[in-house]
Write a structure and sequence with these properties.
This protein is an alpha/beta fold and about 425 residues long. It folds into two domains: about 110 residues, Urease, subunit C, domain 1; about 300 residues, Metal-dependent hydrolases (TIM Barrel, Alpha-Beta Barrel), CATH 3.20.20.140. It has 14 helices and 21 strands. Strands 1, 2, 3, 4, 5, 16, 19, 20 and 21 form a nine-stranded mixed β-sheet that branches. Helix 4 packs across helix 7. It is globular and about 65 Å long. The two termini are about 15 Å apart. The structure holds zinc ion. Zinc ion binds next to loops.
Length: about 425
């Protein structure tokens, strides 16, 4: 049995397509995209009138917490949150317990993802053994077992020499190294961005230079030795300006921004003093930083939007600000936050948005075993169908994620996913898991 998706606005940047058309799914793949496709006897019909039909979203930066911290999230609840958010492929960071620094943990994450079967869960291996920053992890073994990238995310690779080795290896295994840029000597003991708001609230802040200096270091290491470098969660204006300059000078690497750094700044904490749901690393910075991150996204300096989905328990957040955990549970609000902020308020095209949330992540992760990030006939039928018109309030009570930690609770947003197909199966429909 196949599906005929009728009358949706099909946005498929890989094929320069943005038009109201029909789409047919057969045997788990996109079979046909065209006008007024005829219904076949075996087709189920889904009316997508007024809705946008796009390739399933791909998140290259999430924390599913399994193994080890299943009280915060596990691969099942993370997968459910993903498909509620329109994501069909999620890459998970290595800072689990045990750390994903060997082939056995890589295989475990892949297997658990397949058992749950709602979306592709792809492990990112650690750069260093135990995330200790001392000894390179077995990158080749992990790549062979299915790791799609390497990162010590959660913490930086403090040693430049180790980062250089990782980049050299990334060339051999042809997988990106994802840099979490943070100078710990500046950030340790801080809980927000250093600036007028941290001063007003009496909280210790980390200056932007703590991010910028490591961004520059890693880009220069990549220039020196080659390899595939991807910069996680850029949040500072000077990071973005440097990346723009480096790319204009011919250096090749990629960068991402998160929905929260694109939509919020530290003024949120003036309006909601000490709200630990807005405590995140890197921190929400000044309005001028946010403006430059948005500009960098629209001018192509920043290639990807990634969630940095970081779910926590109430106990980890219901603490004094400087004691609370860092992170935002982001998968279920990423598309509406980005649609509302970037498309509705800033006039970005839907095609650019989908490019950064699906097509480019697929290219960077080199997921060529199946064609994805596009609706080209033959591609796997991973599809998000979302509603650009209806406004809904973010209700954390509806979250599938165990993490209810979000500063967007109560926000009115548009662009909510309504249906998600994974491998041609409807895994979420009418905002409920199928
Ligand atoms: Zn990080």
């Amino acid at each position: 049995m196949g599906w005929l998706i009728k009358g949706g606005r099909i946005v498929d940047p890989a094929n320069h397509l943005d038009r109201v058309m029909d789409l047919r799914i057969e045997e788990g793949r996109v079979a046909e995209v065209g006008e007024k496709l005829e219904r076949r006897a075996s087709d189920r019909v889904l009316d997508a009138n007024g809705l946008v039909v796009a390739p399933g979203l791909i998140d290259m930066h999430a924390h599913f917490r399994e193994p080890g911290h299943e009280e915060k999230e596990d691969i099942e609840t993370g997968s459910k949150a993903a498909v509620m958010g329109g994501y069909t492929t999620v890459a998970c960071m290595a800072n689990t317990d045990p750390v994903c620094d060997n082939a056995a943990v890589v295989r475990y994450v892949i297997e658990r993802g397949k058992q749950v079967g709602l979306c592709d869960v792809l492990p990112i291996g650690a750069v260093s053994k135990g995330l200790k920053g001392e000894e390179l992890a077995e990158m080749a073994d992990m790549a062979k077992a299915g790791a799609v990238a390497f990162s010590d995310d959660g913490r930086p690779v403090t040693s430049a020499s180790l980062m250089m080795k990782a980049l050299q290896y990334s060339q051999i295994v042809k997988k990106p190294v994802i840099s979490h840029a943070e100078d710990v000597s500046l950030s340790s003991g801080t809980s927000m961005h250093f600036g007028r708001v941290s001063t007003r609230l009496g909280l210790r802040g980390v200056p932007s230079a703590g991010e910028e200096s490591i961004v520059m270091r890693d880009v220069m290491l990549c220039r020196e030795v080659g390899g595939k470098l991807h910069l996680a969660h850029l949040s500072s204006a000077w990071s973005v300006r440097f990346v723009r300059w480096a790319k204009a000078n011919g250096l090749r690497f990629t960068a991402e921004a998160t929905p929260h750094h694109l939509s919020l700044d530290h003024d949120y904490l003036l309006e909601h003093p000490y709200d630990t749901n807005a405590k995140v690393n890197p921190p929400l910075r000044a309005p001028e930083d946010r403006a430059e991150v948005c500009k960098g996204l629209s001018d192509g300096t920043i290639d990807v939007i990634a969630t940095d989905h970081a779910p926590h328990c109430v106990d980890d957040k219901d603490l004094e600000f400087d004691q609370a955990a860092f992170g935002i549970s982001g998968l279920e609000t990423a598309l509406p936050v980005c649609y509302t902020t970037l498309v509705q308020d800033m006039g970005m095209s839907l095609s650019s948005l989908i490019t950064k949330m699906s097509l480019i992540p697929a290219q960077i992760l080199g997921l060529d075993s199946v064609l994805r990030g596009t609706l080209t006939p033959g591609a796997r039928a991973d599809i998000v169908i979302f509603d650009p018109h209806t406004e809904r309030v973010v209700d954390v009570g509806e979250f599938q994620s165990k993490g209810h930690n979000t500063p967007f609770a109560g926000s009115k947003l548009r662009g909510w996913p309504v249906h998600t197909f994974y491998k041609g199966n409807l895994v979420m429909t009418e905002r409920r898991l199928a």
